[in-house]
Amino acid sequence: MPNMEIEVAREIGLCFGVRRAITLLTEAASKYGRVEILGPVAHNQRLVQQLDNAGVKMVANLEDVRGEVIAIPTHGVGPDVLTEMEARKLNIIDVTCPIVKRAQSAASKLARAGFTIIIFGEKQHSEVKGLLGWAGGKGMAALSLNQIASQANVIASEAKQPPPARLGIISQTTQNKTYFTNFVNQVITTFIPKTSEIRIINTLCQAIGTRLEAAIKLAQKSQLIIVIGGRNSANTKRLAEACSAIVETHPVETAEEIQKSWLTGKHRIGITAGASTPDEAIQEVIAKLNSLT
Ligand code: SF4
Q1: Which segments of 135-176 does DSSP mark as H helices, in order?
Q2: Which of 171, 188, 274, 277 is positioned for an S-S bond with 236, CB 3.0–4.6 A?
Q3: Which residues contact 53 (CB under 8 A, 6 or more apart)?
Q4: Under CATH, which architecture does the 5-13+206-292 domain have?
Q5: Ligand 1 shell residues, CB under 6 Å
Q6: R_g of the chain computed on alpha carbons
């Protein structure tokens, strides 16, 4: 396409937590020859494959571990999993992101202080499962007030039991700041008449916020946005959702998925990528777009 400009978002791709994990895992694999990791290091198939090639083999469950070195992925695990690893005397390489560790610590401290904990997040996500573990049976994951009510009638307004006296709120690290703020406001409005204390700990990750803001700015001046990242990457999905509310947006995992027809009549193309998208995937998309101009 003549006169086509390709602009890359100011903040894009791998966050420091995933880069740190790649470094630690690669070093461990070269030291021990083979490392097993409990689940994907982050939600990106290409990254998983690159690490597999370097000797970091993914296992779905602890029962599948055959070697003596086990890695904990960036999303972290609950204390029960950690205890089991220790009981099996496995050599543990913990690459849990420090931001996730901070959220785990917040859940644990709130639980020990007697709070019932609401985690703003998707209960099936591995990070949230871990956070629920650190909340020690006093936590629930929800993305709306309805979900809170359906999960825990102890704090629903129509409950027979009294609501908990103290309520703590944290977030899955990769959630959207605006949605979290709205959720917190709703919880306060609903529960403040029934509780003696509501404590909010902001466990959101800045890297997600800056990528989202940069993607929105780029979408506002582009005619088309390509979002690169894993199909099951939560933060990649959120980038695509935000951009598609502004302009035509196509999420892709690889450059091969780009179709020439998307570019027809477009002169300003923007590119963004999730926090687990490897640099190579971004470079390949740029090269593919350039080859189509
Ligand atoms: S997105 Fe944030 S919380 Fe998640 S691994 Fe990256 S730096 Fe850590």
Answers
A1: 145-151
A2: 274
A3: none
A4: 3-Layer(aba) Sandwich (3.40)
A5: 15-18, 74, 97, 99-100, 173-174, 205, 207-208, 275
A6: 21
99-200 CATH fold: Cobalt-precorrin-4 Transmethylase; domain 1 (3.40.1010)
- The least confident of 20-24, 160-164, 219-223, 268-272 is 160-164
Closest C-alpha to ligand 1, atom 5? 17
16-32 vs 98-112: helix crossing angle, rounded to 10: 100
**pLDDT higher than threshold 90 for residue 206:** yes
pTM of the model: 0.90
pLDDT at 156 over 50: no
- Over residues 65-96, the pLDDT tens digits come to 999 999 999 999 999 999 999 999 999 999 99
Write down the domain spans for the chain.
5-13+206-292, 17-97, 99-200
CATH code for residues 17-97: 3.40.50.11270
3-state class (DSSP) for residue 210: helix
* H or E element at residue 225: strand 224-228
Distances (CA, A) of 286 to 5, 28, 258, 277: 11, 32, 11, 14
Residue from 99, 233, 236 to probe ligand 1 pocket by mutation (most atoms less than 8 Å from CB): 99
Note whether 183 and 143 are within 8 A (CB): yes
Compute how many other C-beta atoms are within 10 angstroms of the C-beta atom of residue 153.
14
* Mean pLDDT of the chain, nearest integer: 92
Q: Which of 5, 68, 84, 127 is catalytic?
A: 127
Per the annotation, the verdict on 7 as an active-site residue is no
